[in-house]
Amino acid sequence: MLQTLSREEQVVSTVDVLGDGMEQLKEEHELLKREMMELYGMAKVVGQDEDVLNWSVSLNYLRGKTIQFVEKMDAHSLWEDQVLFPMVRDYSGQDLEQLMALEQEHKLAHGHIMRFLQILEGASAPVNSEKAKEAAASLLEAYNVLAGHFRNEEENLFPLAEQMLMDLEQFFSC
After folding, report:
1. Which residue among 3, 87, 102, 103 is the one 20 to 30 A from 148 at the CA level?
2. Is the pTM of the predicted complex or chain greater than 0.90?
3. Is 1.20.120.520 the CATH number for 7-173?
4. Using one digit for the tens of pLDDT, what is the confidence trace for 122-148?
């Protein structure tokens, strides 16, 4: 038998999903920012030592770390795109350009990371400094996009979502 939720049950469900999601989101942001900084540090030095004739080992290590990061980032982005952003859109009553920009940043960063992986896929050993720098440049671009993206979410989206959560909790307590 299909049971429909009352308005009160829908509000409680939304509050629970959003409250739990915001805590998870904050934790994920900290983890992703740490991992992103680690990738940035490694990518920054790739190709810089002209005496190194083959960057394959360093790039393969960086590739593995990047793939792990992408898996976490994709799950994080999926929840934002499918749950958080629509909730915030519904709450605000308008289609926020800011949310569309955040969604585009997910795609842009992902594209830079995929470019990094494609360059490595097409590179045959030994990988010289020039090719290594080209690959690393894509990863550095992804870092630049994501650094701004996380900052934007934390400064603009998080407070809006927190306000939405407080409003829903207040509404429910009446």
Report:
1. 87
2. no
3. yes
4. 888 899 999 999 999 999 999 999 999
